[in-house]
Design a protein that fits this description.
Length: 335
Amino acid sequence: MKFFLATVALAIFSAEAFTFSPSTPHSLALFGSKSTTKQTSREKWIDSRGGTAAPASESGPSLSTNDGGLTYATLTSPNGSTAKVYTLGACVTSYESGGTEFLAVRPDAKMDGSKPISGGLAFCWPQFGPDSGLEGLTLQQHGFARNVDWKVSSTTDDSVTMTMEPDDYIKGMWDYDFTCEYTVSISDDKLDTSFKVSNNGDESFNHQAALHSYFKVSSLENLSIEGSFKGKEYIDKMDDASKKTEERDALTITAETDSVYMGVNDPVIVDSGTGKKLSVETASGWEDCVVWNPYGNEGMGFNEFVCAESVKFEPVVTEGGGSWEAKMSLKPGDL
């Protein structure tokens, strides 16, 4: 019964666009409608973001700059598996293992810093969605973590740690004393991620978190998504946010999809076209999953990816001096 009520409370969530009514109860405030439009133009976003790439440490050998001027780290495992992590948004844009690329960057993505990167493992923090009206969660959509350049604090051949702390841009929106630390490491058989939020002040704050994860597929007709979906309640945003019970053993994408699954954090992306699968293994923190695809949208490259997002919907209250951590791994396998 508690799960049923929690699911209903999240019924107006949308992974892409949101609205909020001041009379909405606490949990409902996290979600909204597809009809909400972008709040700021790209030019305003560039101006407000300000500055240039955050300084990177010189402790690692693998920092590069793309044609658009963005800094990234390339990680390599002993067997040649690779990952690419950009300082803009601490976004992992590539994970290749055994000759197969497992992450997707949308063809309409801007890789010059003019907007957040649309693809890979994209950060949403300290807010997932729009201004919710809750204390500390009245920011621009998806918060600011994906907008700013994180500092590279350390690198090795197979790992990178990036940090984000308040600057004038952030303090103008969210005046709390915090440190976010994100470590990505690669080994021969998996990619590990660890995200830690530390409250350095005396005052507690609320936050949400998500990895808006884009997984590459050979074609949607070759895709199925396995995991603990069957029997779970979910919100179907493409059907007036109606509450349903998932009856399928594995999910497929045959229409525009935006579904909110509470209590699911183990999706497995199965691609019969490549003969590969990718397991999302959660150790802590991430509790929920959003499955999203803009079916039919050629500009977004809909047939080349599916989003199975790792999410913490219910706001976390992190006390002064406290911390919160989420760990997730991507593990490839053969069918």
